[in-house]
Amino acid sequence: GYDVSKLLKQTGAVTFDPGFMNTAATTSAITYIDGDAGILRYRGYPIEQLAQHSSFLEVSYLLIYGNLPSPTELEAFDQRIRHHTLLHEELKGFFSGFPRDAHPMPVLSSAVSALSTFYQDSLDPFNAEQVEVSTYRLLAKMPVIAAYALKKSIGQPMLYPDNSHNLVENFLRLSFGLPAEQYEVDPVIAKALDLLLILHADHEQNCSTSTVRLVGSSNANLFASVSAGINALFGPAHGGANEAVLKMLRQIQADGTKPEDYMEKVKNKEDGVRLMGFGHRVYKNYDPRAKIVKATAHEILTKLGGNDELLEIAMRLEEKALNDDYFIQRKLYPNVDFYTGLIYKAMGFPEKMFTVLFAIGRLPGWIAQWREMISDPNTKIGRPRQLYIGEPERDYPVR
Ligand code: ACO
């Protein structure tokens, strides 16, 4: 109900770009995406090659420091992370303050925010040494916090990290281990989780990463900025989509709805229902990460004994969508999270943990982008403009 060109004239020289569809807010040397061609590269390396040959730890190093580590550098990186896994004992008490059925995402963002209160010695964004320590603290402690949020929600005791394990193995043990039992890490699960974390590790200026940068642009510390990113990731249009996909598949299964009937509902936009796990702001082609996940989903679900019926429903929805004009015209393809939920479920994670797993994966990207922003002399505080559509000036009625 308003004329944008008129408003632009009133405001002066600004651009109007809701959702930042066409606004580059920064330069970046970290991740390259060609959405039309379906290309994704971290620091120049194709995602397919990293998925096949690298590890989450190595990819984290690559994103943060710009190049692949030598074997010695990787070993030192690994050791430093292992050194920082313990949570402050008082931070552990923090988990009791939430309702038992709390979603682990806000628990995670609150605990990460609280790290600024426990580690006041590493909060200066312009002190390189302090930024390094904060980086290690976050990489080491966030998976531990995530596992404790899970344990709290299921009423099980929290274990201490065992630093003979690497980051991913430790996280699995803290999530599924019990004090009275010896926990054996299943190499199939560890490898599959490592792969999914690699695929989520960075995705240039997405909603949560832009949030991390925006908060950090006021010189807020790394913990505060990442905590904000976790909250941005929580929404179902972003990281929350992986949980929403599984809910959707289970609903279709429980109602006995035919996938083709569900598709009709989506196309008619009944109750605003969307095909969750489909569509992307940048990819107007098959998401290259989804290709990798789909290729491994079958293999992993066979090994882990996942729910074949849900996979079947997912594949039928995809097949229908790829041959349907509604989806073809709008260039809607499966995104990374269309199949991930099925794998997380087969690993034994409850649905509420899915987006937390995304957050653990995205962490090195957030850290790398925050560090790039802080060290860029061209960084300015993020402060968008607006077009005012409210009341014109009016006098206060003096009674
Ligand atoms: N199902 C049905 N229709 C869709 C879907 C979908 N999943 N996604 C987009 N559309 C339609 C819209 O209704 C719109 O149609 P219209 O032109 O008739 O109005 C058109 O496609 C364009 O959609 P927008 O919402 O304008 O696209 P935008 O780039 O703003 O949104 C988003 C991208 C948020 C990812 C969207 O596709 C979506 O909501 N997808 C489902 C949620 C999801 O899977 N999110 C995960 C994103 S990836 C990630 O964070 C890992």
TrEMBL record:
Residues the record marks as active site = 280, 337
tRNA-binding as a keyword of this entry, yes or no, is: no
Listed GO biological process terms: tricarboxylic acid cycle
Q: In which pathway does it act?
A: Carbohydrate metabolism; tricarboxylic acid cycle; isocitrate from oxaloacetate: step 1/2
Extract the SUPFAM superfamilies matched here.
Answer: Citrate synthase
Keyword annotations for this protein, in alphabetical order, are:
Acyltransferase, Transferase, Tricarboxylic acid cycle
Instruction: Report the Pfam families cross-referenced here.
Output: Citrate_synt
The record's Gene Ontology cellular component field reads:
cytoplasm
> Source organism's superkingdom?
Bacteria
Q: Which transformation does this protein catalyse, written as a reaction?
A: oxaloacetate + acetyl-CoA + H2O = citrate + CoA + H(+)
Query: Which terms in the Gene Ontology molecular function aspect does this entry carry?
Result: citrate synthase activity
PROSITE patterns the UniProt entry points to: CITRATE_SYNTHASE (PS00480)
Gene3D superfamilies xrefs = 2.20.28.60, Citrate Synthase, domain 1 (1.10.580.10), Cytochrome P450-Terp, domain 2 (1.10.230.10)
| Residues making up the signal peptide according to the UniProt record | none
Task: Spell out the CDD domains in the cross-references.
Answer: EcCS_like (cd06114)
Q: Of which family is this protein a member?
A: Belongs to the citrate synthase family.
Can you name this protein?
A: Citrate synthase
Species name for this entry? Pseudarthrobacter psychrotolerans
